[in-house]
Write a structure and sequence with these properties.
The protein has helices at about 10-25, 35-40, 45-60, 75-95, 100-120, 125-140, 145-170, 170-190, 195-210; strands at about 30-35, 60-65, 70. It has nine helices and three strands, in the order αβααββαααααα. It folds into two domains: about 10-70, Winged helix-like DNA-binding domain superfamily/Winged helix DNA-binding domain (Arc Repressor Mutant, subunit A, Orthogonal Bundle), CATH 1.10.10; about 75-210, Four Helix Bundle (Hemerythrin (Met), subunit A) (Up-down Bundle). It has a three-stranded antiparallel β-sheet. A hairpin with a 3-residue loop joins strand 2 and strand 3. By secondary structure, it is mainly alpha-helical.
Length: about 220
Amino acid sequence: MQKAVGLPSASDRAYAHVKRGILDGTQSGGQFFTEGEVAEAVGVSRTPVREALLRLQVEGLVWLYPKKGAMVVPVSAQEGQDLFEARAVIDEWAAGRVWPHRKEILDDLGRLLALMRTARKAGAVQDFVAADRTFHEHIVSAAGNPILTRAYRSLCERQMCVSHVAMRVSDARMGRAISSHKHLIALLTAGIKADFVADSRHHLKYAHHEAGSVR
């Protein structure tokens, strides 16, 4: 029997469940879990769970142990460095390319900044990191290269495994991140291109420093 149009398959639900846990830190690096645990949590059989874990292995998020389960791939210090360097290349490119289209994304960026403020007040770290990530994805997407946009989203997903830990350290760090994003919007609104590109570069370097300080 075919699944109803628009409804996620059992494999998709298992994939989303495990991936969400990895990205929000519920499933931390080095943690082992079984197919049966996922199947029970999602309410599916083990076959779609195996399919979901294979997808996550291809994305580099888990290591599979046949007939046993999977382990969340830890983010090493070197991988964290590599992620930031790769993001920096795309961020700086996007900051220059998005300039002619900046007015098209100002409303969305303002909305995401408001979500970051709300998440900070509620102590909702996962929501804060998600809004932060989406803020930068909007800029990259508006720069107009779908291939780089997809690569950037993949980098950001992996980087979330680092970022959610950094943001947990203090409310003050979330406050500094909000101030930095507010300044980026101000530059897009009434600044000059060179300053926006330079500040985008500084923003990521500072985020790298913040994440590194909790290792």
